[in-house]
Amino acid sequence: MEILGERMLLRPLNLSDSERLVSLINASVNELREFMPWMRENVTRKEEDEYLLRAVQEMNLNQAFHFAMVLKESKEVIGVIATHPIDWLNESVSIGYWIATAFSGKGYTTESVVLLLEGLFMELKLHRVAVSTTTDNVASNRIIEKIGFRFEGVQKLAGKVAPSRWKDLNTFALLDTEYKSMRKNLFEKFLGGKYPKVKLA
Asked: What's phi and psi for 170, nearest 5 deg?
C-alpha cells in the first residue's frame, strides 16, 4: 500500500532504505534518544538491516505496516511511520513515528499521520487506532492533538527510554466513526483540500 498526499508519500520500507535511515537516525540521535525506546546510541547498518528484514516480513504477512515518509517532490526519505502488530480480531492498532531533526517542525509528520489514518480506516477497515507519546514530548503531543485524537489518559511510567529510565505516556485514540466525521476537515486543514490517493499493492 502506498498513500500519496499533498507534500508526502508513504511507501513500504525496503532493504535499500537502510543506508539512508542510518544516516538520518544518527544525525538526529540527540533528539530521538529522549523519546524513542529503541534509540540508545548511534545505530549500525547491521541493526538497521535487521529491523528492515523484520519490517518487510511483517508487511508481507499483514501483521504490521512500516512506511518510509518520503517528500513527494524530491523523493527524499525523511523518517518512518508504522503500526505496531495489528489486532485483527478487535480491528485495532497503535502507531508510532519519527522524523529526522532537519525536517521537523514543517508539518510533514502531521500530514503523514493523516495519510496513515486514511489507509488504516478506509482501506484496512480498522475500528480503532491509538497512539502513545511521552508526556514531555511536546511536539508529538501537539501533532496528535491537532489531528483530533481523543485523550484517554496517562500510563504511569509505561515508556522505557533508557535501560533504567521510564516516562509517563499520554494515550490517545480515534474510532473509525470519529475519523470519518472529521475526515474532510483534516484534508482541508493538512492536505490543501486534496483527498489522499491510496494505491494497493
From this structure: -80, 135
